[in-house]
Design brief:
The protein is mostly helical. The chain has a single domain, classed as Arc Repressor Mutant, subunit A (Orthogonal Bundle). Helices cover 60% and strands 10% of the residues. It is built from five helices and three strands, in the order H-H-E-H-H-E-E-H. Strand 2 and strand 3 form a beta hairpin. Helix 1 packs antiparallel against helix 2. The longest helix is centred in the first third of the chain and has 17 residues. The termini are far apart.
């Protein structure tokens, strides 16, 4: 079972849902984060499949992914223009703490 980083519920949820007013972005991030933990690799999934897994419209999922990429919480790559995207969930708050911990 995937574990939730407390930062997700303590900070990121409030930031995405309250401040940015993008609750679907939080749901997409949460689902992709859990799925990436289960698979132990980046998640390759279409917008339609992602929308069905979360229970939102395809356009909402697409918009949420775009927002997360702009916020640098998600990296999306494609092998070519028509390929299914591959998403890697980024955790910039853990990278910062690692940088501070180094001498």
């Amino acid at each position: 079972m995937p574990t939730l980083d407390s930062y997700l519920t303590d900070t990121l949820m409030r930031d995405l849902v309250g401040h940015d007013r993008r609750p679907v972005s939080f749901l997409v991030y949460l689902w992709l984060s859990a799925e990436q933990q289960r698979r132990e690799e980046a998640v390759q999934i279409s917008y339609q499949e992602l929308a069905e897994c979360i229970g939102v419209s395809k356009s909402s999922a697409q918009s949420a992914v775009g927002w997360l990429v702009r916020r640098r919480l998600l990296a999306a790559t494609k092998q070519n223009a028509t390929a299914t995207p591959r998403y890697e969930v980024l955790r910039p708050w853990t990278d910062r703490s690692r940088r501070r911990a180094k001498p």
